Amino acid sequence: MIEVACGVMYNKQNKILMGKRPSNKFYKGYWEFPGGQLEKNETIEECLKREWIEELNLKIEIEQEVYSYFYDSKYFCRFFKGKIVDEENLKMIEHEEIQFLDKQDIYKLKIFEGDSVVLDKL
Length: 122
Fold this sequence. Notes:
The chain is of the alpha+beta class.
């Protein structure tokens, strides 16, 4: 099992950052709450903060875990809600596209099965 941290992070306008997976990655074209795989000797919160710096050049403040579920029988996805600290430093490093969206607009995107439940919990 691979543990994954995902960040449902809000900017100052109270919109959620979503990233579109690039065409050279698995699940291309899917929109995701950015995050990544837990590495040895780090907490799940440290993992999420590291991934946001690596993928988006952004610092985040984690408030709470909102939901978790198993995806594709090998990923244990844990979702955390919080705030983006330095939105002005945003760089698109991993994603094909990035958008800041209201919750109701995210339901209309091509998202992972289970991510709509995450939205319901917000």
